[in-house]
Amino acid sequence: MPVVTVKRSDLYALLGRSLGEDELYYYLAKLKCEVEEIREDLLSYEANSDRPDLFSVEGLSRALKPWLGIPWRGFSIVDSDVRGYAGSIPERPYVALAVVRDLELSDEALSQIMQLQEKIAQTYGRARRKISIGVYDLDKVKPPIYYDAVNPDEVEMTPLNETVRMKLRDVLSRTEKGILYGYIIQHMDKYPVLRDSEGRILSLVPIINSEDCRVRQETRSVLIDATGTSLEDVVNAVTLMATSIVERSTSGFIEAVRVEYENGFVVEAPRRTISIEVSVEDINKLLGTALSSQDIVNLLKYSQYEVDSVMETKLIVKPPIYRIDVKTWVDVAEDVAVAYGYETLGSTAQSLPPSTTPGKKHPLEYFSSRIRDVLVGMGFQEVANYMMSSRDIQLGLMGVEGDLFVVGNPKSDRFEALRIWLTPQLIEVVRENAEKYSKLLLFEIGDVVIPDSLSETRARIERRVGLAITHEKATLTDGVAYVKALLRELGLNPVFEKKAMRGFLEERTAGIKACGEELGFVGEVDPRILYSQGLKNPLVISEITLSKIIKLCLK
Fold it and tell me: Residue ranges per domain, the chain?
């Protein structure tokens, strides 16, 4: 989760009052933020990744005001006379624009704008690959604004913090940002740019903005842009920037800019608010409360919701447009719970009547514990990997093909999908520890999620146990011996049959069966994969479906 740093004096100026350290800890926790450090005038806090509206001091002060009983002025959205036009850029097709005027900026305000821009682009925008953001001095730009692609060997610009003009291709090799992010566009024949009606380059997208329209303290009006691969995310990014920057505006107006595409498609930012119907019964059932509709209305004021309709059994509410994390009634219920107080919910739960039925360990957990004890007794060490993984690790490492469930907006590429097997992550653990230990016996017990069109939920969850054996003379024989000992300890007599699997040696891999049921596999990893991972010793991997073992043992 991103760590945000603000000046306390700036925060207090926006709030109109100061806060003690205890108050900072208390109220930031209410916003799902964790204070990292309070030092002199600086406050550093970890913001939840689903709340990018809190990635700057402007958003933080706005969110704190209802908790402190401080009125919030709000903002108004009006149509802008600035226009935008977008050409065809297949690799990065979307652009959105907005304008904020009547600004009063300080050095710290500029720092916060840059911090917000970078935090959103790094997290929400996946290091600019999905989204990049720009903020420009509108008084130094001649609208309309054009988003199109140009020849990088013919067009020039003066990059931010530079004093000389450069060809766009040179920007990728001669500037820090170009070196960091140039790989995103260097394969393109033409580079995407944002320019004004006089041909002035505002930005080489998504690399760097122009020095010619840099935002300074004396800037009074700004143009905000976001470009990227997802229309929704691009509009959200402009919304987040505009609704934060407008906190520095004396008039409180955000101008929505129309961007017209070649095919007639029109995009406007910032986003418009959505209406969500909320059932009072559903919220009470989820939270274990007995709140009335008016109680819920009062609690939602802490999150600055608008309420369109209040009935005894349901509400129609509108979250603020900068709350891009609120999509369904469950998200609304979470805000109700935060305002009600998790500590209050906890005390309510403690007063519930005791259970009238005894609990017992689930068979799956029982067998997991039993297998864990057996393997530890054999000298294995347990490892624990995340259930989230990536396509590159799950499929690319072993060169396999298959489907997996991918998250729509992952925190990082490394955690973009649910894993379908344990083997790739076991190999990663071996790679990370191979230099420290000449011999490793590792195991993991964990769940995988297999896409299954025949299942009602389109998914099949399996508990599996994975073994990894590596040392100078490790062979399939070692793996077979350990698997046989493990299964016999559970009362099963395994049979091993030749099996072909991608990523494993064809003649050194076997399927594992018991009572006619295929339980998994054991095999030697292909040396080419070991070489790619920098592993010198042979590696034997076994993966067994624990759910199938339970069925056999309970027969």
Answer: 3-68, 76-269, 276-349, 363-553
Reported CATH class of domain 363-553: alpha beta
The angle, 0 to 180 degrees and rounded to 10, between the axes of the packed helices 329-340 and 342-350 is: 80
Q: Give residue 357's pLDDT.
A: 66
Q: Which of 241, 158, 171 is nearest to 206 (CA)?
A: 171
pLDDT-wise least confident of 180-189, 337-346, 374-383: 337-346
| Whether the Cβ atoms of residue 104 and residue 218 lie closer than 8 Å to each other | no
- Alpha helix positions (H), 354-415: 363-377, 391
For 26-42, b/e burial (b = at least 16 CB within 10 A) is ebbeebebeeeeeeeee
Sheet holding 306-310, edge to edge: 276-279, 314-318, 306-310
Domain 276-349 CATH assignment equals 3.30.300.30: no
Amino acid at position 244, single letter: S
For residues 490 and 484, what is the distance between their CA atoms, to the nearest angstrom? Answer: 10
Three-class SS of residue 82? strand
Share of the chain above pLDDT 70, in %: 97
Instruction: Name the amino acid, one letter, at 59.
Output: G
Say what the alpha-carbon torsion angle 218, 220, 221, 226 is, to the nearest 10 degrees: 50
For residue 206, whether the previous peptide bond is cis, meaning omega lies within 30 degrees of 0, is yes
Collect all residues with Cβ–Cβ distance below 8 Å to 4 and sequence separation of at least 6: 44, 45, 46, 47, 54, 55, 56, 60, 115, 119
For domain 76-269, give the fold.
Phenylalanyl-tRNA Synthetase; Chain B, domain 3 (3.50.40)
| 276-349 has the same fold as 3-68 | yes
Mean residue pLDDT across the chain:
92
Write the DSSP symbol of residue 546.
Answer: H
Q: Are strands 440-451 and 381-382 parallel, antiparallel or unpaired?
A: parallel
pLDDT tens digit string along 350-391? 555 566 666 677 888 888 888 998 999 888 999 999 999 988
Q: Which CATH code for domain 3-68?
A: 3.30.56.10
Q: Are 103 and 221 in contact (CB under 8 A)?
A: yes
What does the pLDDT read at residue 349? 54
What tokens were used for 195? 């320019």
pTM: 0.68
Average pLDDT for residues 9-22, to the nearest whole number? 96
Count CB neighbours of 272 within 10 A: 12
Cβ atoms of 113 and 245 within 8 Å: the answer is yes
Distances (CA, A) of 452 to 449, 457, 459: 9, 8, 5
Q: Identify which has the larger pLDDT, 408 or 376.
A: 376
